[in-house]
Amino acid sequence: MRSSRRHKPARRDRSSMRAFGVGVVVAVLSIVAVGHARATPTWLATHVVRLETNRFVPAETRVSPGDTVRFINGQGGPHNVQFMAESIPATAQALLNDAMTRRILPLTSPMFIVPDEAYTLVVPHLTPGRYAFLCSPHGASMRGSLRVIPRGE
Hints:
- The chain has 153 residues and is of the alpha/beta class.
- It has helices at 2-39, 90-99, and strands at 46-52, 55-57, 60-63, 68-73, 82-83, 118-122, 129-134, 143-148.
- The strands form two sheets. A four-stranded mixed β-sheet has the order 2-1-4-6, with no helix packed on it.
- Strand 1 (46-52) and strand 2 form a beta hairpin.
C-alpha cells in the first residue's frame, strides 16, 4: 500500500510539472507575440492609384519607404506602370526593379486588361524625391509620379 501512496504524489508532481511547463510556454509565446506586435510598424500606409481612361488618379501620390501602392485598373485599358528610367538614378532603378514583381521589362509592370485588376508595389528605401512613371500604351497623355518623403512628414 505504501508504494501506491508514494506513487500518487509522483503523478501529481508530474501533472504539476506539465501544467507549469505549459504555463511557461504560453508566457513565452505571449511575450514573443507582444514583442512582435510592437516591432511591426503601425504607421505604414496603403495608397490606391486608379488607372482611369488616360490618367492616373491621383496623378501624384505621396509615399514613404515601406508603404504599399496598389495600382488598380479602371477603364480604357490596357494599362501598366512604367517608371521613367531617364529621370531615376541607377541605384533607385535597381531598388524599384527588385520591388516590382512580374515585370515585363525593367521598371515596367505587366499589362492590366481586366477591370479592377490590381498591381501592388511596396515602396523600397528610396531617397526622397519624385519618381515619375507612365502607362506604356498611353505614354504621352498618361503620366504620374510617386513623391517619396521621409516617414512622418
